[in-house]
Amino acid sequence: MSETNDGQRFDRLPATEAERSVEGRATREAVVDFFADRFGIPPETFDGYTFWEKGAGKIWIYGGQAPSPVEIEAIGMTCLRTRQEHWKPTTDFVQRFGRVATDCVIDLDRDQARRFAAGEDQELEWDGDWGYLIAAHEVAGEEEPLGVGLYVHGELRSMVPKGRQRDLES
C-alpha cells in the first residue's frame, strides 16, 4: 500500500524511483537530473543538500540533514514546483544556484534586465529552448542570475513574484 502525501509535513525525497512510497513524488535523482539536463548545473553542486516535499509538488532544498518526516513550517528554501506539466524553479533557487548554470541562461542587457526586474514581459530573440529560463545580467563583471523567465513565441515573460518586482529606473 502506498503512503499518501501529507501537506502539513516535510518528507525527504526518496533517492530513486525504487525507493518512492508516495505516488507522484519526485525523487532526488529526478530533481538533480532536471537541474543538470535543463540548466547544466553539475549534480555535485547538490552534495551536502537534501530535498524535501511539503504539499503537492513544492520542493525545498536544505543544506544539511534532518529527520524525515518533520512537522515544521519551513526547512531551507523552496527550489522547484513539480506536479505540473513543466517543472518550474523558484526565483530564490535561481538567484542562489543560477551562477553555475551553463544552459538555458538568457543574458539581458541593462534595459532588458530593468524591464525583467519590474515584472514586464518583452519580445526578445532567443535561439535556445523554449520554456523556463534563467534570466541574467552582468553586474561588476560577473553574470548574476535575476530570476526565472518563461520564453515562448519570441517573448520572455518575467516570473519575478509581484512582491519582489523592482523599478530600477534611475
UniProtKB/TrEMBL annotation:
Coiled-coil blocks: none
Keyword Methyltransferase attributed: yes
Residues annotated as domain DUF7122: 3-76
Region of interest called Disordered, as start-end residue ranges on this chain: 1-22
Residue intervals of the rRNA small subunit methyltransferase F RNA-binding PUA-like domain: 113-164
Pfam families: DUF7122 (PF23437), Methyltranf_PUA (PF13636)
InterPro entries, per database record: DUF7122, Nol1_Nop2_Fmu_2
Descriptive protein name: RNA-binding PUA-like domain of methyltransferase RsmF
Organism: Natrinema salifodinae
Lineage start: Archaea, Methanobacteriati, Methanobacteriota, Stenosarchaea group, Halobacteria
